[in-house]
Amino acid sequence: MSDPDHRVGRSPDAVVAVRGLRKRFGDVPALNGIDLSVRRGTVLGVLGPNGAGKSTAIRVLATILRPDAGSATVLGFDVVKDAQALRPLIGLAGQYAAGSWCKPSPSALSTLQ
């Protein structure tokens, strides 16, 4: 597990803590210094227009992309320094993860089953 110096969150209840997160693709800023704290037990929806950086932020938090600047922890693990230890503890399911076996408008429960 990450040592305390690598942790970003201030609260022991924060399961996701992001400070000043930045990511660029060439000249295009996808994340421009975002800050976010998600407390344990929270259901978080990430909404916004196309190109707002939602997928980029999720990919950074899931250790798929490395941020250019800033810091982020998930479950107390730094997403860059502790990526290998964090990956077995998290899961990522996008909007199309259910596949063709689901009804056109599946409920969250049926998608998870």
Protein described:
This protein is an alpha+beta fold and 113 residues long. It has a single domain (4-112), classed as Rossmann fold (3-Layer(aba) Sandwich). 15% of the residues lie in helices and 28% in strands. The protein has 3 helices and 4 strands, in the order E-E-H-E-E-H-H. It has helices spanning 54-61, 83-86, 108-112; strands at 14-25, 28-39, 69-74, 77-78. Strands 2-1-3-4 form a 4-stranded antiparallel sheet. A hairpin with a 2-residue loop joins strand 1 (14-25) and strand 2. The radius of gyration is 15 Å and the shape is globular. Mean pLDDT is 82; it is low at 1-10.
Radius of gyration: 15 Å
Q: Within the CATH hierarchy, at the fold level, what is the topology?
A: Rossmann fold
Question: So what's the CATH class?
Answer: Alpha Beta
Which whole number gives the mean pLDDT? 82
What structural category arises from helix and sheet content?
A: alpha+beta
- Helix content bin: 10-25%
